[in-house]
Give the backbone structure.
Amino acid sequence: MTVGALSLRWLLTAVFVAAALGSLPVRGGARRRHPRRDLHNANSPKIGADRVSGVFCALMCAALIAMTWRSGPLVPQWFQIAVFGCAVIWFGGAGLGGSARSRTPGLSSLHHALMAGAMIWMIAAMPAAMPMAAAGPAAGAMSAMSRRATPAAVPIVGVLLTAYFGLATIPWLLLAVGTGRRVTGGVAAGNAAMSAGMAALMAAML
């Protein structure tokens, strides 16, 4: 699964790199001012859970970058599905308990669970929607056969997910931008970037 336009590939790569950086826990100057308090916070269960969530988000961004550039997977398909399946379970469970990094913890976790589920769907279903490469007179016939063999639900689900992630970008942007029209929420900005990138990538693959 690759994106055709080179400029779009680089743009999506930059978006997913920014999203991955935004999903990582922030280490500020408070550690130098309050070392004991920071040590206590670093060992708290919520902060540890946020770190696991950040790792899953970074893995999703890395997989999306690989999808942007490569037609074949870097790692076995079953391994990717297993990892992102664990992410679905993790974020789904986190949606019940909440997270220390978001004002709307339940919705944020459910959004990430849907993202991980969409990753599984792209890995498993999208190759069936991509036309097979062929050279010469056989190219048109193989492309037509690929379209006929593609289940009707694949493009429908693709359109629905593209629309969802495109619309989900808006509230995350509103959370990220403060009153002075400056980005004040790094986590929300990362979620907005990842949502917009997934919408663009899935739209390019339809």
